[in-house]
Input
Amino acid sequence: MDPTARHAVNLNVLRRHDALITAILDSSSHVVVYNFDSRTQSWTKKGIEGTMFIFQRSAEPLYGIFVMNRLGMENLVASLNPDMEVQLLGDYVIYRKEDDSYFGNVAELLFVVC
Output
């Protein structure tokens, strides 16, 4: 499939999950998602692996990350906003987002396989 057709198919698939997605800004063919467990001070696989898309929406939040899970039905969707903590460490993207949990926020790590 040529890249233009693949992009169109991927955009249609993302729009099935969120009709307000207007564009795919970038993608990676395979990422592995990890969560940080603050009690054990270690990273554990979240059970989500697959293609990652960075997308734009027509309404707030305007940008986000979507990982289409090849291992199960649960995908990763995260809004991107100026208040997020993001670190780029080689093939790793670590971000922290606010959460309603007891610990106050959640850290997730994306291992990007190029």
In short: The chain has a mean pLDDT of 87. The chain is about 15% helix and 60% strand. The first strand starts at residue 21 and ends at 37. The CA atoms of residues 66 and 87 lie 18 Å apart.
